[in-house]
Amino acid sequence: MSARILVVDDVDVNVRLLEAKLTIEYYDVLTCNDGATALDLATEHQPDMILLDVMMPGMDGFETCRRLKARAETRHIPVVLVTALDGREDRIRGLEAGADDFLTKPIDDVVLFARVKSLTRLKQVMDELREREESSRRMGVDGEGGARLRSEGGRVLIIDDDASQAQTIAAELGREHRVSIESDPEAALATAKGPLDLIIVNVSAESFDGLRVVALAKSGDARRAPILAIVEPKERPRMVKALELGATDILPRPIDPEELSARARTQIRRKRYTDFLRQKLDSSLEMAVTDALTGLHNRRYMTGQLQALVGRAAHGGATVAVLVLDIDHFKSVNDGFGHDAGDEVLAEFAVRLATNVRAVDVPCRMGGEEFVVVMPGASLEDARIVAERIRRDIASAPFRVMGGKELLTITISIGVAATTGAGDTPEALLKRADEGVYEAKAGGRNKVIAKAA
């Protein structure tokens, strides 16, 4: 489906004109004539971009934009203010309200479509991250809730061969951000350390091709950083090309300090929002396969790994072994000292377990006091030797719980099994190891029992 654009203007002729232009280019267009309706439509239909007239009766474009950006459901939608006004104060006021850019009437079609493509491309990236994050939330693996995203304290890289202009930009942004200047673009992009929150490129530079710098930045290590392109207003083709290559905003020369600050804040805030979504996604994915108490992998991760490894072994690949470990008399720890002490035992046990297996092994918590170690490439005897090492380490030193007030002697029973050939399955492998655990417990506990097929 093509991008969906909401056009808001109280003048029907203007609405129909923009609707016709966008429809010809295969955009899906929604329209309305006032700010209140725009808020409702944006919430319901989630457009990819909003073209919002400034001069409307009642709620004007500035206030409508401010309310859009204040709502969690719509703050991620790019807003372009369309106005007959071209004054500095109006641009700054719009940027402070959260607008992403301005289009001045009469609208230049080339600039319009360049801006539409640039902003809808950005919105689609955000949508993908938001959808994945929402999927993780529905699965019950959501991380921390919302965060207040700051727009100051960003790391800004200025790439400009005009020393005076670069210093002016640095002086203005240096009040809120950490700014560095580089006149050699290749050196700047090659040596940039750590995450950048904003790259400012003079695309009208004389000593290098600014458009090439934009293209390199969007394909290199700094590709996630937004790019603010400085351009002469009369150089319309260069401005359009910069947007096509991935610049996220345009700053016309001569540079207005307040407009510069406002645009930088907008870009950095958006960058931090996308970073926040990515961080939540990474955290959710980690939570989906990690046991919260011990930090080991969980049953879900173990099942996937074991399925793949046993499948390869069944088709002539390397053998895989498993250890099933059960803490002896763990119920008595919970009953005698409380569940907090039990959790301390489990956490310490996980540390000792992880430090006694091989680097390629996968230690997991199955649930309760039961653990599994998946051992790629290990034979039954290899796995038995490792299991004995773990058993000795657990029994050799007491577990300190309740702030060191109590010392508990802990032992474990371990069952060991390894794949046997083409007919083996993960279920059969785990069942043999479980049988080893039962036999170890029946034989007095604190034992390792290896079960061949």
From TrEMBL:
Gene Ontology MF, one: diguanylate cyclase activity
CDD domains: GGDEF, REC_D1_PleD-like
Catalysis performed (reactions): 2 GTP = 3',3'-c-di-GMP + 2 diphosphate
Any one GO biological process: negative regulation of bacterial-type flagellum-dependent cell motility
Keywords for this protein: Phosphoprotein
Annotated coiled-coil segments of the chain: none
Pfam family, one: GGDEF
Protein name: diguanylate cyclase
Organism, scientific name: Brevundimonas mediterranea
